Fold:
Amino acid sequence: MKKQILIGLFSLLFLQSVFAAGTRYEMRVDGLACPFCAYGVEKKLKAVEGASDITVDLNKGLVSVNIAEGKELTEEQMKKLFKDAGFTYRSMKKFPL
Structure:
């Protein structure tokens, strides 16, 4: 019985990840130097509707964020967001989830 319940739970988790599509964005940003920089960027991105799983790599100047299906980030939106946060936006790549 326990085995069946565990199999059922794992199946639900797997199906959720299959159907929870969206887009992963990776942005190159100049000026990220400290944990406070990362916090400022995370705070700005959390305000974007559909944003989740935000990561900031200070060494590489790379900011990653998942955006829910049906939502999209634009170059202009990111230029403004990073400028308002005090950083220089360089480029953005999109990857399907």
Remarks:
- The longest helix spans residues 2-19.
